Amino acid sequence: MNTFKEKIYQTAIVQVKEKINLLKTERKAINDGILEDTKSSAGDKFETGRETMSRDLMTVENQLKQANFEFDELCRFQAIKEPSSTVQEGSLVQVGSDKYLISISLGQVTVDGQKLFMLSKNSPLGEILVGHKKNDQIDFRGKSITITELQ
């Protein structure tokens, strides 16, 4: 795997780990809030507050589950060492002046001063790119684009 691609994965892994740590901190704060919440004389207010915290906890748990899945996927893609002749998961693709890493949907990432986009194979552009080769022309949203690099 080329070093630039490796740096992209390392940057993405750091970002996802930070997200996981923030979500764990938030989960702990919500759990602490639930445990510390004492029933006041306003019973309905207590139940409503507790229900809100329970929903917040469920939301954070789902986000944490998704972030852990993204981390696992990044590690799986990082392990792909052999380049492919067609665009697939783990491919670094250049279309015009834009670069895309087909992996997880993380959005824009900057590595070594270069901006690129990490997108899922299930994203609109990812679905169109997967399976194509270098120099293939593809129509995307009414524009003809060409794959100029593939790693």
Description:
By secondary structure, the chain is of the alpha+beta class. Helices cover 50% and strands 23% of the residues. The chain is built from 3 helices and 6 strands; from the N terminus they run ααββββαββ. The chain has helices at 3-36, 43-78, 124-129, and strands at residues 92-95, 98-103, 107-111, 114-120, 137-140, 143-150. A 6-stranded mixed β-sheet has the order 3-4-2-1-6-5. A hairpin with a 2-residue loop joins strand 5 and strand 6. Helix 1 (3-36) packs antiparallel against helix 2. The protein is elongated, with a radius of gyration of 21 Å. The N and C termini lie close together (9 Å). The model has no long low-confidence stretch (mean pLDDT 90).
Distance between the termini: 9 Å
Rg computed from alpha carbons, rounded to a whole number of angstroms: 21 Å
Structural class: alpha+beta
Q: Looking across the biggest beta sheet, what order are the strands in?
A: 3-4-2-1-6-5
Helix count? 3
Order of H and E elements: HHEEEEHEE
The average pLDDT is 90
Biggest beta sheet summary: 6 strands, mixed
Helicity, as a percent range: 40-55%
* Proportion of beta-strand residues: 15-25%
Gross geometry: elongated
